[in-house]
Specification:
Blueprint: H1 2-11, H2 13-28, H3 35-60, H4 68-84, H5 89-114, H6 118-136, E1 155-156, E2 159-160, H7 161-179, H8 181-191, H9 193-198, H10 203-229, H11 240-250, H12 262-281, H13 286-311
Helix pairs in contact: 1-13, 2-12, 3-7, 3-10, 3-11, 3-12, 4-5, 4-6, 4-10, 5-6, 5-10, 7-8, 8-10, 11-12, 11-13, 12-13
């Protein structure tokens, strides 16, 4: 019985966790199901959802990125500065995506070139990018950026524009992972880098591509964050990397790489967001929520390890 249940739980742990959370919400915080709250949750899901999608590519290769929050903060400040200078929405979005992709690719290149653990490289990147954000803004927020990002705060067919952005990013990312050579290579690298290398997979280039895609997703999230806040904050997005990693793992991905998918990661992001919302509605301190995320991450990894032990991995 246990041998049959564990693989199912491992694969659908995000769905199981979400079902349990919704049941708790019904009993503990009935106001969670109000129309206004549900619309607010859907509107807020875009940023953590997009970040989780980008992190999925990295974790599938067996890597990790601790610099996501600092990376996002830097791009947030840069986008706000461009907006203050009168740059339009389209050129700002294109340049931000190019910059984010470039930073992500550089991180992947350093990992491939130095052979250092991704944890070490991205930890260094986190410190450097956060410092760059403060230096770039002279330790001040960037305000007065105008309304050039206002279209991203509107609605289309009743759904907030950030929600549409999340859907588009999720569909494209899902197709890349399931239908392209790059997607197969990403899974292969995560399944075993040395074996993938001997099979002819360009491991280093695949890692660079995964981190570049992650950087692109960070840029998209930075555009959405700037549209929401209408300013640039060098101290923004603190602990966003924890939320992204937790979302991917809660969604069923393995931190060892080679196992996971986009749908699970988005569901994991929804789970984390709903957990925060429930605690907020109950008036519980957000520091408690931060501790709870650590417990959730630990439990999710434990479930993954149980599945691997069952498979003899």
């Amino acid at each position: 019985m246990k041998a049959r249940v564990l693989p199912i739980l491992q694969r659908y742990q995000g769905l199981a966790g979400m079902a349990l959370l919704l049941a708790v919400a019904a009993l503990w915080v009935p106001t969670f199901y109000s129309g206004d709250n549900l619309r607010n949750v859907l509107n807020q899901l875009a940023i953590p959802g997009v970040l989780a999608i980008g992190m999925t590519f990295v974790i599938l290769t067996g890597g990790i990125d601790l610099s996501v929050g600092a990376h996002l903060a830097l791009l947030n400040c840069v986008i706000a500065t461009w907006g203050k200078a009168g740059t339009g929405l389209a050129p700002t979005a294109l340049m931000a995506c190019a910059l984010g992709t470039g930073i992500g690719a550089l991180i992947g290149l350093i990992i491939g070139w130095t052979k250092l653990p991704p944890f070490v490289v991205t930890l260094a990147a986190m410190v450097s990018l956060r410092g760059a954000a403060f230096v770039y803004t002279k330790n001040a927020n960037v305000s007065g950026i105008g309304d050039f990002l206002a279209p991203l705060e509107g609605r289309w067919l009743g759904l907030p524009m950030p929600g549409w952005v999340l859907i588009v990013v999720a569909v494209i990312a899902g197709l890349v992972l399931s239908k392209t050579i790059l997607g197969r290579r990403i899974y292969a690298v995560g399944g075993g880098g040395r074996a993938a290398h001997y099979s002819g997979v360009p491991v280093a280039r695949t890692q660079v591509a995964a981190y570049a895609i992650n950087g692109l997703c960070v840029a998209v999230a930075a555009i959405l964050l700037t549209a929401r806040t209408a300013n640039g904050q060098p101290g923004a997005a603190t602990s966003y990397e924890l939320d992204a990693i937790a979302a991917v793992v809660v969604g069923g991905a393995s931190l060892l790489g080679g196992y996971g998918n986009v749908a699970g990661s988005v569901l994991g992001a929804l789970f984390i967001l709903c957990t925060d919302t429930l605690l907020n509605l109950r008036g519980i301190d957000d520091k408690v929520g931060l501790g709870l995320k650590g417990v959730i991450l630990l439990l999710a990894v434990y479930v993954q390890n149980l599945g691997r032990l069952r498979d003899g991995a």
